[in-house]
Design goal:
Layout: H1 15-21, H2 26-44, H3 50-71, H4 80-90, H5 127-143, H6 149-165, H7 168-173, H8 179-202, H9 211-229, H10 235-238, H11 242-251, H12 256-273, H13 277-290, H14 296-299
Helix pairs in contact: 2-3, 2-4, 2-12, 3-4, 5-6, 5-8, 6-8, 8-9, 8-11, 9-11, 11-12, 11-13, 12-13
């Protein structure tokens, strides 16, 4: 999926596949069915989603009931099949429409279980930058525990310098194909990580609001938008650009043109990939944009997980079923 070529995970479903899948427990069968309905609902952008949404809740109830029964069985509640069921349910949007018609129903009121420190990159982020993101989160946590700020500031500036020095060209050279595309991806993630480093650490505040840091943010923001609306706007790449888009959205608080671009891209991304996560990000950002608050932590009123992967690989557990 991350090699930018033909994916071995996309293939035509045969009768043999269906016969084999029919051996799976209900929580896997109906969990996958919910994912399929979810994808279709978001592709329709909720215009004709009413009947599909009703089916979604019905099948989701069956899947949850089946999984609950499995988890009650001693000796079978921690095997690979049960764990695949848990992951499948977690990756299904609890409310695929968010359009309001179910918001008054206590049974359909979403109870979110989310992880991470506001945002998490997925798939295409260069490992070296991902390590820096983890380090930034650690610095943010330490800033809350009254550790001497001077030491944190030096470590933060060191991290920012490593991000700026990151060679996306060298990283692209390590890929077997599509070097030009990987160059663009690496450049985009370096810009997004730069923004994340500065904005999130200013919010603690580990970084002060200086002219130098403002200039770096402006430069990284312009570069990131240029990449996202140009070379990285192609369908096979843009599906992996949710995290950079969210970061750009936080930066776009005072830039109307940039805000419009981010909002439009998130709406299109939801329709393209058939999941609600980009619209969750859009709603979150729009609340932030319309508020009088500024800063990273003012945007993220709670932890969010913008999950893009909508399926669990069960290829290693189907045969023994």
């Amino acid at each position: 999926m991350t090699l930018l070529g033909k994916s071995p995970y996309v293939y035509q479903i045969s009768p043999d596949h269906l016969r084999q899948a029919s051996k799976a427990p209900d929580f896997l069968q109906f969990g996958v069915l919910c994912m399929t309905l979810n994808h279709r609902i978001n592709r329709l952008q909720h215009e004709q989603a009413g009947p599909l949404t009703e089916r979604f809740y019905y099948y989701r109830g069956i899947a949850l009931s089946s999984l609950n029964q499995r988890l009650r069985l001693t000796g079978r509640n921690t095997d690979d099949v049960a764990l695949a069921g848990v992951l499948t349910i977690l990756l299904v949007d609890e409310d695929p429409t968010r359009s309001g018609e179910f918001e008054e129903s206590p049974a359909a009121n979403p109870q979110y279980l989310v992880y991470g420190n506001a945002a998490s990159p997925f798939h295409l982020c260069p490992p070296a930058l991902f390590v820096e993101i983890i380090g930034i989160n650690h610095l943010r946590q330490q800033a809350l525990t009254n550790i001497k700020m001077q030491g944190l500031q030096q470590r933060a500036y060191d991290a920012l310098q490593r991000i700026r020095n990151f060679s996306y060209a060298q990283w692209a050279d390590s890929k077997p194909t599509s070097r030009v595309v990987w160059l663009l991806v690496g450049d985009a993630y370096r810009a997004a990580t730069t923004l994340y480093c500065i904005l999130s650490l200013q919010s603690q505040p580990v970084f002060l609001d200086t002219a130098s840091l403002r200039g770096q943010c402006l430069s990284a923001g312009r570069n990131l938008q240029r990449l996202l609306e140009g070379p990285l706007s192609h369908q096979h790449i843009r599906r992996f650009m949710l995290w950079p888009l969210v970061i750009l959205g936080v930066h776009a608080k005072t830039d109307g043109t940039m805000r419009s671009f981010v909002a439009c891209e998130l709406s299109n991304l939801s329709c393209q990939i058939g999941t609600y996560a980009p619209l969750t990000a859009k709603s979150m950002l729009e609340r932030f944009w319309s508020s009088d608050e500024t800063g990273w932590d003012a945007c993220f009123d709670k932890p969010y997980a913008f999950t893009m992967q909508i399926a669990v690989d069960t290829s290693g557990i189907i045969d023994p079923l």
